[in-house]
Each structure stands twice: as C-alpha cells, then as structure tokens.
Design brief:
Strand order of the largest sheet: 8-9-7-6-13-14
Bound molecules: 2-acetamido-2-deoxy-beta-D-glucopyranose
Keywords: ATP-binding, Hydrolase, Nucleotide-binding, Signal
Strand content: 15-25%
Helix content: 25-40%
Family: Belongs to the GDA1/CD39 NTPase family.
CATH superfamily of the largest domain: Exopolyphosphatase. Domain 2
CATH architecture of the largest domain: 2-Layer Sandwich
Order of helices and strands: HHEEEHEHHEHEEEEHEEEHEHHHHEEEHH
Structural class: alpha/beta
Number of helices: 14
CATH class of the largest domain: Alpha Beta
Pfam families: GDA1_CD39
Distance between the termini: 20 Å
Number of domains: 2
Oligomer: single chain
Protein name: Apyrase
GO molecular function: hydrolase activity
Shape: globular
Largest sheet: 6 strands, mixed
Amino acid sequence: MAAMLMVFLLCVTTSVGSAVDAGMDYTIPSSQYGLILDAGSSGTKLKIFNWKRPYGSRGRIEIKMIHNKKFKASINDYIYKLNDINEYLQLIIKQAKIVVPSSEHSKSPLFLMATAGLRIYPGPTAAKLISAIYNLLANRTLCPFPVHAEGVRILSGEEEGVYAWVAANYLRNFFWSDKPPSQAVGVLEMGGGSTQIAFIPDEPIYANMFPVWLGSQTYNIYAHSYLFYGQNYMLNRINNYLIIKARPRFIDSVENPCMLKGDNTSVVDSAGNSVHVIGSGDPEKCLQIINIFLESGEEDFCHPKPCAIGRTYQPSVGGIIFYAISAFLHAPRHLGALDSLNRLNARVMKENATEHCQKSLQTVVEGGLPAEYGSEYCAMGLYIPSLLVDAYGFPENTTSVYATESVDGVTIDWALGAMLIEIELRETNSCDTSGSGWPSSSIYLYSVCLIAIYLVAYCKYIHGAVL
Ligand SMILES: *[C@@H]1O[C@H](CO)[C@@H](O)[C@H](O)[C@H]1NC(C)=O
Ligand SMILES: *[C@@H]1O[C@H](CO)[C@@H](O)[C@H](O)[C@H]1NC(C)=O
Ligand SMILES: *[C@@H]1O[C@H](CO)[C@@H](O)[C@H](O)[C@H]1NC(C)=O
Ligand SMILES: *[C@@H]1O[C@H](CO)[C@@H](O)[C@H](O)[C@H]1NC(C)=O
C-alpha cells in the first residue's frame, strides 16, 4: 500500500516528462494565475489563485486565493449522464474567464480535483467520468486554460490530507524557513464523506508515508484517510447499521439513539424500502454504535503496530500540535468544548454531548439551535472525542488539538496546498534533460529524479491500466 502510494506520488512528479513524451506543450509559465475546480459531493468550487515568486524559482511562493465560487450541482450528478456535463462545465469556465484577465488565459493552468464523493464509485465508472471531463477541458475551443491529463483526477484521500497539511503549514510560514519538522503542525480534516489525519511523527513511519517536496526540501508525512468516516456518511452509517441489525424481520421503523427525541427522518434501505428513523436520544447506546466503527483491529491482524481504526497503522501523535479543520469545528464550538485558545477538550466535549443528546429537539430549537443541527451535534459530539482519543490515540486530557479554520484570517484549504505542490513540481522540475536547472548541491534531488525515471515505466504501466 505505502509503496503504491509512493509510486503514485512519483508518477505525479514525473508527469511533466510524460507530457513531453506525448508531444504536448505543457509548462506552468511565469504567469501568476492557477485554477482548481474542487469537485466535492455537494458541488464544485471554482478556486482561482494568484501567485508570485519574488526571490526566484527556489524562493518562497507567495500565493493567495483570489476567488472561490460554488456551483451547486456536483460532477457526481453526471456520472450516468456524461453527455450533459459540458453544459455544466461551461458555466464554471465562463466565470473563470471573467476573473482571470484574458491575456493570461492561455498561460493559467486549470486542474479538476475530485474528493470523497467520487471515491465511493467503482474505479472504471469514475474513470469514465474523469476522462469525459478531461476531453472537454482539454479542448481549447471549450476551455482556454491549459489542462494536463494528470490535472483532472480523483484525489486519493491521503493526497487530500497531505494537501491540507501543506496549506496549514504554509500559512504558518513553515516552508522556506529553517524550522525543524517537529515545528510543523499536524492536520485533522473532516469532510462529508471522509476524514483525514496527516502529520510528521517524531518516530519512523512504517506505512502510509507521503514525501512532500516543497521549499527545496522533502518532508515525510504520515497520512491516512478513512472513507465513510466523514460527517454525513457517518450519520448514514449509523442508520444503516440500525436497519441491518433489526433484520431479518421486516421493519418500517427503527429507533436511533444518536438522534434527539422528537427528531425523525426517512431513509431508503439497500433493498429500496423506506424506513422511518425515530430519535431516542440515548448517548450511551449511541456511543456503543460509534465504537463499533472505531474499534482497533485484533492484535493478530494489526501490522505494523500500532493500529488506529481496524487494521490501519498509525504512528503515535506524540506531543505534536494539530489543527482540526472543516467538520471538526462546528460541534465542539456549539458544545462549549473549546477553550479561549480554541483548544479542543475531549472530556468536556463528551460530557456536554451526553447532556445535549438527552434533550429533545424542541428544547434545543427553543435554545436557538437550527433544527437540522440538533441531532448532528449529538452524534458528532460523541463521535469526535472517541475518534481523537480511542482511535487516533490522543490522551483524554490533550491540549494539542486546536479547532481552527484559518491562520491569520486565511482559510486552511487543501486546494491551496494542492496548488503549491503543483507549482513547485513544475517550476523546480525536475527531470529536465537539459540539466541546466540543477543546483550544484542538490544531490538528493538528483537521486529522487533517478528513482523517478526508473519508475516511469511502472507508472506508465499503471496509468495504461487505469485510463
Ligand atoms: C472541440 O469542441 C468543439 C466545439 O464543441 C468541437 O467542434 C470540436 O470538434 C472539439 N475538438 C475536439 C478535438 O474534440
Ligand atoms: C417527525 O418529525 C415531524 C417534524 O419534522 C413531526 O411533525 C412528526 O410528528 C414527527 N413524527 C414522529 C413519529 O415523531
Ligand atoms: C460544557 O460543560 C462545561 C463543564 O463541563 C460547562 O461549564 C459548559 O457551560 C458546558 N457548555 C455547554 C454549551 O453546555
Ligand atoms: C494528562 O494526564 C496525565 C496522567 O493523568 C498527566 O501525566 C499529564 O500531565 C496530563 N496532561 C495535561 C496536558 O494535563
């Protein structure tokens, strides 16, 4: 697995080489705009970046997101309607053409990166969607921005985590400094579909290691993404679990202990039957269900050790500072589990969630909380402390997890990290045969490139198989 991930990363680093092979003219020019279509499960966000490099090609990249607009439909909605997707993409491209000055269009690279929403489909189905999108975006009549085949893809969950890690640490001015790796912050991210953990442990990494090349240095990061452990999918899983447990007898309703009393909803089970789910607000029972999803694997099946969830290896979080972002923010905030520095207190969160879960929906709505969050904060309020303490291994009294969405007012966004990595890969690249770009001391870089060249054949084999 780890080897595969490394190979994949190296494949990305060698993509410039393959583009040249394919006779394409693709380089990130000195133009300072770049676009990422962040294709999530609830919509696509057009994120436009502007950057400069005042100190030359090895100096700090100064980058800002200058535009962020959400388009409501998701590319997932087109997975079985490939013929209709051009119309949708054109809406986004039209907006992008307005924001980026027209003289820069042909020099500003565009990427489409899809996240957890597409990871639930079988590879071949998702690959068809991705290649349909690439064919449209690569057509210069339809899209004036240069697009590279590797630039239209579904991110692995680990890439998503690593990019968020890059964004957080970039905003803290970690790169292009002499700060030791121990001063990097770890990142905990939770979206609707998956949750990610990424950090530089202070012990060796035995699996799931991602090398990140930025600021003329390589950082070895441990990263893992758990699909179906994001906020929305976790809530759905609890319902599915309850329905499956109630079988084999036919049921048309189940009680959900993670939902508040007075709340109810309908879900469609795997056989297509509608099942009414009724809240019973029982924190103890809710926690039992959550713990089933979070259980660590049996000793015999956990290699290398230690394991976090199931058989997934994770080195110790040690005393490292973590930023918990996106869906990690809301429930702790509402439940009063953050101190004045926004540090998350797992014990208070669990206690206050236990209290919150026992209130009726009507009571919390009267207290000013929008109804849609009533049950969500019960389930998330119990889930998050268990995830941190029982799965990730933070001590219950940890003061190392900061729930924060931004650094100095700038949002920590994986897309920022992704853009930085893309710029760095192409600008300091790399396996250019001219040899002119080599810094005399960069033996390490040189050897990385040699390994990369060695792996190109294997990469091509993999790409050939997938695309
Ligand atoms: C690009 O798009 C235009 C307009 O839809 C179409 O006429 C043309 O055939 C496309 N080119 C390629 C290479 O697909
Ligand atoms: C389900 O919720 C609706 C409001 O969303 C409420 O009117 C209805 O009485 C509830 N039904 C049950 C059985 O709790
Ligand atoms: C959370 O619990 C703490 C003590 O355990 C209490 O002081 C605080 O008011 C509670 N906050 C909420 C929002 O319930
Ligand atoms: C957490 O608890 C342990 C053991 O009870 C203690 O040694 C440690 O100092 C505590 N840490 C913090 C940050 O309070």
